[in-house]
Predict the structure.
Amino acid sequence: MGYSSKGDSGFASVPSLLRRNAAEFGSKSAYREKEFGIWQSWTWANTEEEIQALALGMLALGVNRGDFVAIIGRNRPHLYWSMVAAQMCGAIPVPLYQDAVAEEMAYVLNHCGARFVIAADQEQVDKVLEIQDQLPDFEQMIYLDTRGLRKYDHTRLHEYASLQDQGRSASAAIKSELAAREAELTYDHTCVMLYTSGTTGKPKGVVLSNRNIIETAKASSEFDGLARGEEVLAYLPMAWVGDFIFSIGQAYWTGFCVNCPESEETMGTDLREIGPTYYFAPPRVFETQLTNVMIRMEDAGRLKKRMFDYFMEHARKVGGSILDAKSVSTLDRLKYSLGELLIYGPLKNTLGFSRVRVGYTAGEAIGPEIFDFYRSMGINLKQLYGQTEASVFITQQPDGEVRGDTVGVPSPGVEVRIGDNGEVYYRGAGTFVEYYKNPESTADTKDPEGWVATGDAGFFEPDTGHLRIIDRAKDVGKLADGGMFAPKYVENKLKFYPNILETVVFGAGKDRCVAFINIDMSAVGNWAERNNIAYSSYQELAGHPRVLDTIQHHVEEVNASVALDPMLSGCQVHRFLVLHKELDADDGELTRTRKVRRKIIGEKFEDLVNALYDGSESIYTETEVTYEDGRKGKISATLSLRDAKVVPVQKLAAE
């Protein structure tokens, strides 16, 4: 199939979209950033000038066509600009996770052969300098924040603002060269390279073309009616495909404004001040927000707590129907309006969701109860199903067809089919080009016809045409009796409880399921303080008998719910333990996007898994941990192992 250099969109690259935005609505806000408590703003015309100055400076520094430019730091307009400036130069931006340790960065920087690094601050500069002897391709680093860097050796270090100043005074030859390189860009040129989270091994470099990003941004924006007036908050890792498609792809296609918070600590305040109209968050963010709401309500006065419980119960009954414009009685609408005045409205304002017109969650399955909580308050939260290799969008939920147990219908321009083994496959304009330097994995994942194997198991509902994802295909298995084992289904139900932060269920090939559980320190700590329970550490609180009693109650409630699903009733948790440490990406137990590395956890804590199955009531264990400064250490604990009541499936069926 042949394509023009610009494709159906009429634009060949993200820089060409920038030029259009600056020309057609240059005075409109493109970026905002909060610094020192004050919001600063840049129009599209300002943005074009900032990016062009940086691109000219990068050319003068020696950036060549096809070079990889690594970008490391939190969400800041200047770092987004650096991605587009690299594209203007014919180079390829490679954003890295800012919380990655130096060794993780070394792998990515070596794998792509990055000659240039753009770092946000001293912390990121130090990490790169620490490993520079391992980076034969690394030549120059550009830093944004000058604090702490004055006495460094600047042979290979360049201040961002100074580089822009050089670009502004660049020669006519350099300006001509930049114009030529930008004019060369086509739909088939690489737009960005993003590394996968690496749940099953080393991260893979996913090559995404201009076609992938622009066509996906166009289709997804039209699907939800996104326009220039949208406001988004850019706070997710810049190395994650979701942030790239929202904060670069859709932002440049529609011309909406990208707002960068001051810091992680000020996120809540910044969210309320901006009041985004278009919002995305992974399930963990919504879970944490719900946990904080529940903690506050536990501390509230009796009358306020009763009002909250009363109106939220009503919202669960009719809120979703009102949001979907379905028939609801006049009395119920009046009661809901009163709830909006007294509870829902103030709560949405506190969360920063008062103006959200479209909200999305993805990355992991969200618990249906959590999903329904937000929709019941009138927040148009929807689920999408996507991957880095798809430029995010595989399926989306149309307005009026939103449910907690499906991920919607195929996104515009995307084909989806189910393989004979139940695995989900897709192809479309957003389908990635290749895995960089990895033809074997590319061939294993994408066939010659463009169909991509997602690694997820699912099925289409025959009556609605909506896709349901059961679990990761590699995690879906059989119990010893032949029943289906789908751990994520149970884990999501457990994580609905504010006291539970993370959980890992085991059971493939076994006669029953067991679980590891992490408590949520903020929720359980708040409970302990209210009940005058003293504790000195996470480990001590996690092992407290009353905490274990509470977690056991949650597990047994989930078992009763799981038992109602005839297909998955065998996945009830028979035994569990509360881990003595939080699962941590620095310890290799989670990915940088907070996904559980189930196999690694099972191997690392094999003694605990075995103890859950052999009937032990307690077990002593030692675990290596990584401290914030990178040092290694060991923690030890004696854990209590508990039995949980399960619902006999045969008895349930007989009744």
Remarks:
- Residues 281-379 form one domain.
- The chain has a mean pLDDT of 92.
